[in-house]
Amino acid sequence: MPSFSFAEPEDTSGMWDSVRKLDALVKAEVDAGIPQERIVLSGFSQGGAIVLLAGLGGRAVREGGEGWKLAGVTVMSGWLPLRDRFKSLISPHALTMPIFWGHGTDDPLVRYSFGRKSAEILKDQVGLALRWGDKGEAERAAFGSAGVSFLGYDGVLHAACSKERADLKEFLKRVIPDNHSG
């Protein structure tokens, strides 16, 4: 089975088309009265790559604006697209956005090492905080705060497991707290 790598050609125009569509969905929700701070973009595999572009940059790149100030972005078994120029594509809000990144350690399609390297690029080239979720309680306590929380799931292929779904649920609870009183 072939796997993705940074050596693969990227469909830049197709990616931007997808980003425009996500931007339109976010704008429709905001126009309908949903605060952008209560919206999370989530994607699996290629969808994870696209939500990184849309959530951390999106309309900021095309319109010269500030971009969305979303509650967060979630990536599952994804990778960083356009890595050579990603830093120039992000909005001012990107450095304060929480990012959940889950990845199966045995993923044969988007290899775990490719996901980890993508997260490291966000730290080294973009300046995002990076926490490894398997490093203990201190890292888990920061789960849902600004930066990337990268969690590996032992033995998981190109899929999501129940532990990853539980971690995603916890992340969502932290970044979109219940706003009902009493």
Question: What does this entry look like structurally?
Answer:
There is one protein chain. This protein has helices at residues 12-31, 46-56, 59-63, 112-126, 137-141, 162-175, and strands spanning 40-44, 72-76, 98-104, 130-132, 147-153. By secondary structure, it is of the alpha/beta class. Helix 5 (137-141) links the parallel strand 4 (130-132) and strand 5. Helix 1 (12-31) crosses helix 2 (46-56). The longest helix is centred in the N-terminal third of the chain and has 20 residues, at 12-31. The protein starts with 11 loop residues before the first helix and ends in a 7-residue tail after the last helix.
Keywords:
alpha/beta; 5-stranded parallel β-sheet; 6 helices; 5 strands; globular
Largest sheet: 5 strands, parallel
- Subunit organisation of the chains: single chain
Distance between the termini: 53 Å
- Helical coverage, percent range: 25-40%
Topology:
Elements: H1 12-31, E1 40-44, H2 46-56, H3 59-63, E2 72-76, E3 98-104, H4 112-126, E4 130-132, H5 137-141, E5 147-153, H6 162-175
Parallel strand pairs: 1-2, 2-3, 3-5, 4-5
Helix pairs in contact: 1-2
What's this model, at a glance?
The protein has helices at residues 12-31, 46-56, 59-63, 112-126, 137-141, 162-175, and strands at residues 40-44, 72-76, 98-104, 130-132, 147-153. The N and C termini lie far apart (53 Å). The protein is 38% helix and 15% strand.
